[in-house]
Structures are given as structure tokens and as C-alpha cells.
Amino acid sequence: MKAEKKSPIENILRKSHTIAVVGLSDKPERASFDVAKYLQYHGYRIIPVNPAILEVLGEKAYPNLSAVPEKIDVVDIFRKSEDVGPIVDEAIKIGAKVVWMQLGISNDEAALKATQAGLEVVMDRCMKHEHYLLGGGG
Hints:
Blueprint: H1 8-15, E1 18-22, H2 31-41, E2 45-49, E3 55-56, E4 59-60, E5 74-77, H3 84-94, E6 98-101, H4 108-116, E7 120-122, H5 127-136
Parallel strand pairs: 1-2, 1-5, 5-6, 6-7
Antiparallel strand pairs: 3-4
Helix pairs in contact: 3-4
């Protein structure tokens, strides 16, 4: 009997533990807050990256990825598509494994750069929704 092959997104969600959420807001009505809270509830380590806040969801916020003192598996981006390039450059520099651009966010040039540097890339998908679809929402 052949083992069922997991999708790249499923592999990312199963193997990742630490997620830096770039653009995480401390406002509960924002999508970034909702997604991060959901992921945190489901056991992921959330690291807020936003220079405008000090703390959110009980976690210290950092002004940028380079300031984060621990290893990051996924850089989850809640910024405009045109702002993604420098974030991807920083994700490459810190040795992140995955760049995930949330729903409505895509940047082909940045995605190509990340892929060429060995990172996995997801664009225009919601981590919360993908996790839920894989049966994680129970």
C-alpha cells in the first residue's frame, strides 16, 4: 500500500513551529490578529513583527525580522504586495524556511528570489484557512 503524499502546504503546516507574523496588529478586528490568535491557539509559537507595537497576544513584538532572537520557520506576511520585497530579503538573511504571503498578497519577483535562495513560498493563501482545511480547526 502506497503512502499518501502530503501537499507542500500540509508539509509546511506540519513541520513548522515558529511563525513570525510581519504586520501583526494589536487590534482584534484585524485579520492579522485573528490569524495569529488562531495559530497560537493551535500550538504554533507566534512572534509579532511590527515596529509600532510592543506586545500582542502575550508576546513581545520586534521591529523587524533581524531583531528576533530565535530561529523562525515561517515568515507570515500581512503587508501590501509592493512591500514584500524587503521582507523576503530579510527572511533570506535570517535563514527562514518559508515565506507565506497571506490572502490577497502576492509578489512574483520576491517569490522567485525566495525560491532561488532555497525557501518555500506560498502566495495569496490564508494560513488559518489552510490549517482549518487540513482538519486543524477542531
